[in-house]
Specification:
Blueprint: H1 12-36, H2 40-43, E1 48-53, E2 59-62, H3 67-84, E3 94-97, E4 109-118, E5 121-131, E6 160-164, E7 167-168, H4 170-178, H5 183-211, H6 213-236, E8 241-249, E9 260-269, E10 272-276, H7 292-306, E11 321-324, H8 342-356, E12 373-381, E13 387-395, H9 422-428, E14 431-438, E15 454-460, E16 465-470, E17 491-495, E18 501-503, E19 507-512, E20 517-521, H10 536-544, H11 550-555
Parallel strand pairs: 10-11
Antiparallel strand pairs: 1-2, 1-5, 3-4, 3-6, 4-5, 6-7, 8-9, 9-10, 12-13, 12-16, 14-15, 15-20, 16-19, 17-18, 17-20
């Protein structure tokens, strides 16, 4: 039994001990979530997140997970607390939600929220969000790139009570199972989320048992205030001014020949930062719209990316940040606009905010990253005749920076997923991967080279496989900085059984059949600095490792044969 510690004031050591404790709790929740999940997209892709919140809905601690998940949980917890009232909640209660227009982000991202009690009083919220492999809709995987309204994207879940005390809402459970293609996997992932929340609730209650209810809440508030102060200090180091940036999505999945503009003006004024998205294109017909909560999450990520990484990440970090998101635009659409592919937009929002701040911090901020998470979804029946849905990710390269090369094939810009292992895809889907390699010459040239994309070749082993391809950077390359070159654009094609080749215009939903192949080449990051200044040994190493070709080594870097 823990001994109650009588603490009337919070000394710095205690404050730091509790900070590390709540961070550890969040990461233990994350570990539980990943180890307990059923779907490949979580087990291997790591597309799930866990976090703790104060009773008033501010982020207390978050796992090392998906930044845009973690920030989007903020309005979800607020919505649930407002809908059900904190005073009416009881131990054991569970809440579920995914509706983007009520605080969620897109339908596959389902949140489970558990109120945490100590001494019969609410002291925190424990929350977990998972990208579910399938939530219904018009295509397996629930990310149809050609959706034109949210009703085509899957089941919408408003704030609902999933469990009251120890009694599940069986009507709700059965309804959910009937609206997804792989109910066993779906419920397995829900169970993993509940396990993660349970771990978080147990550990927070143990912490409160040591310090007492009142002192624990005071420490929580002090931790948030401390992060706010440190964030404001970091923002004060950025020169005041307004800095602008424009970037583009290739298209909206429906109008394939029209790029989509994202424009942001970032104003730094003392210890505050404001992002104004006036000039961004109107909401799109296709599913690349980002609801307000998602746009907010992307901005929060960007601020953390340009401030001191040692600052504890919690709700205090976000207090100095404000946004103007014009209604009816790509970054704040009006219902029932489709939103399933919003990840691509959020990555571009985050990248644009960071890109704008190059004007203030040119010697600190790297070149543009590929900002591409190629999402592939396969669905149909496997060789045993059983239905399956499998999603997989393929990343591009990050941008070169002022002191180092970009990283090859890595997730950036607000998401933190993993490339899908070859073995995982082959285990879950009737497919064979013939090639997975780095893409030579894809990183932008520079004193510090951009990170490389990858090449992946997949052969399909059965007929009638529903394939969703959602890519970016096929039309607009990641830009170099300070004299560095742009990264290579992405490229994908399908080789049909008769030998014909179909080039994919970044977004596609189609049927593929046995013997046909999909070949994808993801984008590279931009280069940083004059390529003539690149260290000769680094060029030779790149040539030996096939990261650059002999032609590029000679023409771009002046390496003699």
């Amino acid at each position: 039994m823990n001994r109650m510690v009588d603490v009337t004031t919070t000394d710095p050591i205690t404050l730091e001990v509790v900070r590390n404790k709540v961070d550890g709790i969040a990461n233990e929740m994350q570990s539980t979530l990943l180890r307990s999940s059923f779907s490949t997209v979580v087990k291997e892709g790591l597309d799930a997140s866990a976090s703790l919140f104060t009773p008033n809905g501010e982020t207390l601690a978050q796992a090392i997970a998906i930044p845009i998940h973690l920030a989007t949980l903020i309005p979800i917890v607020e919505t649930i607390a407002r809908t059900f009232s904190l005073d009416a909640m009881k131990p054991g209660d569970l809440y579920i939600m995914n509706d983007p227009y009520l605080g969620g982000t897109h339908l596959p991202d389902i949140a489970i929220v558990m109120p945490v009690f100590f001494d019969e009083r609410p002291i925190a919220f424990s929350a977990a969000m998972t990208h579910h492999q399938d939530v219904g809709g018009m295509s397996p995987g629930s990310v149809p790139p050609n959706a034109t309204e949210i009703y085509q994207e899957g089941i919408r879940i408003p704030p609902l009570k999933l469990r009251e005390g120890n009694e599940f809402n069986h009507t709700l459970v059965e309804m959910l199972k009937l609206n997804v293609r792989v109910p066993q996997v779906f419920m397995g992932d829900i169970g993993a989320q509940i396990s993660a929340c349970t771990v978080g609730a147990r550990r927070v209650a143990e912490l409160a048992g040591r310090y007492g209810y009142g002192q624990t809440l005071r420490i929580f508030n002090e931790l948030l205030d401390r992060s706010e102060q440190l964030t404001r200090k970091a923002l004060e180091a950025i020169p005041d001014g307004t800095y602008s940036y424009v970037d583009y999505l290739d298209n909206d999945g429906v109008n394939l020949d029209e790029s989509v503009r994202i424009e942001v003006a970032v104003t730094v004024s003392g210890s505050e930062l404001h992002c104004d998205f006036e000039g961004t294109d109107p909401q799109t017909r296709g599913p690349f719209n980002a609801v307000k909560s998602g746009s907010q999450a992307a901005a929060y990520y960007a601020v953390r990316a340009v401030t001191d990484s040692s600052i504890p990440t919690n709700g205090g970090c976000f207090r100095p940040v404000s946004l103007h998101l014009p209604e009816g635009t790509l970054v704040n659409p009006v219902e029932p606009a489709p939103v399933n592919s919003r990840t691509a937009t959020l990555k571009r929002i985050a990248g644009s905010i960071v890109g704008a701040l190059k004007g203030a911090l040119p010697d600190q901020i790297p070149a543009d990253s590929a900002g591409e998470l190629l999402v592939l979804s396969l669905g149909g029946k496997n060789l045993s005749g059983k239905p399956y849905v499998v999603g997989e990710f393929n990343a591009g390269g990050s941008g070169g920076g002022p002191r180092k090369d970009g990283v090859d094939v890595i997730e950036t810009d607000g998401s933190n997923c993993m490339n899908m292992p070859v073995e995982a895809l082959e285990l879950e889907a009737p497919a064979r991967v013939h090639r997975m390699s780095l893409r030579t010459d894809s990183g932008g040239v520079g004193e510090f080279r951009g990170g490389l994309g990858c090449v992946r070749e997949i052969e399909f082993l059965t007929d009638n496989i529903a394939l969703t391809h959602r890519g970016e950077r096929h039309r607009h390359a990641a830009r170099g900085s300070q004299g560095g070159g742009d990264g290579a654009k992405a490229f994908s094609k399908i080789v049909r059984r008769d030998g014909t080749e179909e080039v994919v215009n970044s977004k596609l939903f189609t049927m593929v059949h046995s013997g046909e192949r999909l070949i994808v080449e993801t984008a590279g990051g931009g280069g940083y600095g004059d390529p003539n200044g690149r260290d000769r040994q680094s060029v030779q190493d790149d040539l030996r490792n096939r990261k650059v070709s002999e032609q590029s080594a000679m023409n771009d870097y002046g390496l003699s044969s």
